[in-house]
Amino acid sequence: MVETKKTNKPTTNYVKYGIVAAVVIAVALVGIFALRGCSDKTISADTAISEVSSDAASGADLRIAVVRMDAIQSDANALQDLRKQKENYENKLRSELEKQQKALEKEKAEIEKSQDVLSREALQRRVVEYQGKVTKLQRDLTERAQSIDASFQRALAKIQENHLDPIIEAIITKKNLSLVIDGRFARTGANVANLDITDDVIKSLNKKVSSVKMETPKGF
């Protein structure tokens, strides 16, 4: 019997969207390193931070908002359309894979039937050719799936840079916000008014852009 490598159907594996809300206040993380010079002497932590200002933001002065990026990803029209484009390419790839798998299965059956007819050398050549086709199919599948994802990620980056970031920055300015954080990582009380700006972002994004076309992935 001829052994064949199995090819698996490409699974739809959505990469988490790389869309991050703009943050007005940059928080400086100060790492204290022991500085070692040629004389192998060190300085104290107090000396190391001697030029750091003692100023800090006061809680009473902060205007904070949260934005739920998961809601934007699922509800914004442009992102919904972008996911559909990605799914269409994946469906095309899956359909082609199924077609080629059937052809390979047919060829495998023919090789098995010819084992008693062909010479050992001729049979071995057919087996090698068949296995080469299987390997090529696996390689092409991987490359084209990666190309779909790369095109999808570039389109996401375009939405973020050209549309989402400017909208969030404009809302920050209009509401005079000090800080915007991703609501997925925040824990807030139910009685905080005007804290969540997600709906404002989605409405503004939908008004600004409804779709962004993916670049055609390689192999399509």
Task: Summarize the entry for a quick read.
This protein is mainly alpha-helical. The chain has one domain.
Walk me through this protein's architecture.
- The protein is mostly helical.
- It has one domain (45-50, 57-208).
- The protein contains five helices and two strands; from the N terminus they run αβαααβα.
- It has a two-stranded parallel sheet.
- Helix 3 (77-113) runs antiparallel to helix 4 (120-175) and helix 4 crosses helix 5.
- The radius of gyration is 28 Å and the shape is elongated.
Secondary structure elements and their pairing?
Layout: H1 45-48, E1 64-67, H2 69-75, H3 77-113, H4 120-175, E2 179-182, H5 198-208
Parallel strand pairs: 1-2
Helix pairs in contact: 2-5, 3-4, 4-5
How many strand segments? 2
What is the C-alpha radius of gyration, as a whole number of Å? 28 Å
Spatial separation of the terminal alpha carbons: 35 Å
Q: What's the story with the biggest beta sheet?
A: 2 strands, parallel
Strand arrangement across the biggest beta sheet? 1-2
| Beta strand % | under 5%
Structural class: mainly alpha
Instruction: Specify the number of helices.
Output: 5
Helix residue percentage: 40-55%
